[in-house]
Amino acid sequence: MRGWAERLEEAGSFGELEALILQSAFGEYLNQLWGGIAMSQSEIVRPEDMGLSDDAMAEFDQPAVAELANTGNQIEVRERIAELAAAGNFGQAGLGDETLVMMADQFHRLADEKIAPDCHDWHVRDELIPLALIDELAGLGVFGLTVPEEHGGSGLGKMAMVVVTEELSRGYIGVGSLGTRSEIAAELIVKGGTAAQKEYWLPKIASGEILPTAVFTEPNTGSDLGSLRARAERDGDLYRIFGNKTWITHGARSDMMTLLVRTDPDEPGYKGLSMFLAEKPRGTDADPFPAPGMSGGEIRVLGYRGMKEYDIAFDGFEVKADHLLGEAEGDGFKQLMATFEAARIQTAARSVGVAQNALELALAYATEREQFRKPLIAFPRISGKIGWMVVETMIARQMTYFAAREKDQDRRCDIEAGMAKLLGARTAWSNADNAVQIHGGVGYAEEFPISRVLCDARILNIFEGTAEIQANVIARGLLSGRN
After folding, report:
1. The domain 212-336: what is its CATH number?
2. Whole-prediction pTM
3. Catalytic residues, which ones?
4. What's the pLDDT tens digit per position in 196-205?
């Protein structure tokens, strides 16, 4: 946050709102460090839980620290932030790059014009995102943002991916998540694929000719990938896949699966796992998995619709041997781990988009809805909620930007990616929950978009590493001396 403020000040765009956001952020988090940090829903970490000594906590007795903690996030501060936000100002993002600013503007408009007007109907009817929109996204280069130029992509960094993902997710998390599968598949191939695999797959992913899906999770495994049981058996120039997978997003309409299975049944844990790039035909609602050796069905979900979730059973499904990623058995977990930083950064960006959407819905309703002959936003407890939503959304955004910039500099950033994902997911849920509260009873009605956003926000603390997993990653990293 300090770096964000310094960059804006240097550019001459650090105004009243940005100063209030910075003040409120530090004031609130000083109090949270003293009293307890909300890690996720109903989990608060106290100073004593972190082993902080009285000497360390004595820093809070310094006059400047105490004053900021006591006054930095007072209701008057948050009311003024809400007032400025109601005028259409949520604070300068501080992208600092003309190309990124143009991309943000372009996809902001697209979300407003092509996604927001229809996405709630897609959700209510539990429909797939229209192929026409997917084709338009492909034409805009969404699926090849980070694919190297020599393989048909734009060759941009993770910051570009974050900017586009946030804006699309602000429109609808399902659309913002379409690029996630392509990002994961491309990252796997760029980092672990053979030259032939890169030449074959990457141009098709970048153009949107093929839609990938990630097939990792199994029933009863969850976060414990080392216990995967689905297996691949070598049979000449192909492998046959046996076993079950679950929570497969966009599984029926995808053309290719990044498929993690066990190739060495005698090697326990992670070492026996391999990654395959498995081609499959697209399915339909009536016949989701028409390929021989595949079957399955839809999992009905509360939110995060638009691509649908599936269970898949494999019984002799065939994969060409040269579609083993890197053409080396036993490297699957290592190959997947190499993508986790980028995947979590993108999920953080999705979270920021959902948080911003919830904030905008809350602000619009609080401005329009009147009670006791004045708009809801005129009540301090409402404007105070909205003010803090503005602040925490900006904190999550800047944490995500920081992680993406670290990744673009090729620096290890598992701690930063975990922080961005953890904070972003928490903020998305908090904003959505507060927005429903501001709406009152109608916020619980299916016809109001905020009811969808609440359901969409809840998944963010679960997939791409649960809140508990992120906290463990952060803690282990800090305890090892990396900060």
Report:
1. 2.40.110.10
2. 0.93
3. 464
4. 999 999 999 9
